[in-house]
Fold this sequence. Notes:
Elements: H1 20-37, E1 41-42, E2 48-50, H2 51-58, H3 63-68, E3 71-73, E4 84-87, H4 92-101, E5 110-119, E6 131-140, H5 145-162, E7 168-173, H6 177-193, H7 200-205, H8 222-226, H9 237-252, E8 258-259, E9 271-278, E10 287-293, H10 297-300, E11 308-314, H11 315-324, E12 336-339, H12 346-358, E13 363-365, H13 376-385, E14 390-393, H14 396-400, E15 403-408, E16 416-420
Parallel strand pairs: 1-5, 7-8, 12-13, 12-14
Antiparallel strand pairs: 2-4, 3-4, 5-6, 6-11, 7-9, 9-10, 10-11, 14-15, 15-16
Helix pairs in contact: 1-5, 5-9
Amino acid sequence: MSKAPRITAIKGMNDILPPASARWEWLEDVVRRAMAAHAFRNLRTPIMEHTQLFTRGLGEVTDVVEKEMYSFEDRQDQHGQADHLSLRPEATAGVVRAVVEHNLLYDGGKRLYYMGPMFRRERPQRGRYRQFHQIGAEALGFGGPEVDAEMILLAVHLWAHLGIKNWRLELNCLGQPDERRAHRAALIEYFEAHAEQLDEDARRRLHSNPLRILDTKNPAMQALVNGAPRLLDHLGEASRAHFAAVQAALQAAGVAYRINPRLVRGLDYYNLTVFEFITDSLGAQGTICGGGRYDYLIEQIGGKSAPAVGWAMGVERVLELLAEEGVAVPEPMPDAYAVIPDAAQVPAALRCLQGLRAQGVAVQMHAGGEGGLGSMKSQFKKADASGARFALIFGPDEVAAGEVTVKALRDGAGAQQRQPLANPAAWADALKSPA
């Protein structure tokens, strides 16, 4: 038979393999502890939703909806009807859909967080993938500026516990819809007067979404954008007061920030506070976390009007930043490695190992090949390579005496003592790695 052709992963959709997967697990554990410390609860939504959820929530003229979503028509049902479905390009719309569908705000606001894959059809490059992963936090049902500050401080808490130091915080206020409309009219008038300087993207957005022109990465347009009318100059008293209160809370917490009047974010649902955490260590893909307030999205998706604020961080970018900054991530290693010289001792060894694992000891059992379990020398080499602090030797003499030899492989290497085979609970704690 001819050899079957090899099948590889889709470009931009990457496998996460050991030992790299241990870094993901460590990051997720830090996030879970941080979320618990801030009283956030986990929510998990499907990776696929009705396309209408994103076109309605994100905006039909955003880059995500226009160019990047994986959308398709499902198979027709018995009546010839077919759903239009999309892989989620971000999670907030799905979180809001779940909150509305299950009436989660019936008894007050909710603090929620999520982790998972997102999908966007774009050219894979450093820091940008077709399947990428986000961790996000959403506080729904709370309208006060103190919650905006709390969300920002939650991210700051995470950077501290992850060991990330190279970041800066940028803030802006997008105001309310009527203020945005006044600013939009001023933007259109300004850019129409300089139409000859607009690139193709800006001309396309001029009347559909002129605010996004301010977010252009085209160097030739920076001077033009810098001279554009500022949204901050169109804010009313209530919006200014909200933004001032957010800043006051951050100042009180000792968090430095910079106001960036060109910060608009890429989705239509934002209002009032928007923010981004940016690093200079990752080149052009410098935003590691971003979000803001979205007080009108719940109503847009069919729920009863309620305020909300949230953020999302890119997991791949954060992990890359950890590597760039040289943050040491602990690698998972067993506490002990079971050395079994003869197959006759395997049953006794297995009983003992199960008892140790029940006490919270991580034990790697030696596994042989077709030729048997291998020599003691080869097993000790594998024990040492595993990173375990102890070797557990289940030799015929030990097992016959109802004992197991515990040999130190790291601290006090070579020291050994025998322990009762039938009572692993009595000596399990001595094997556990220090916290």
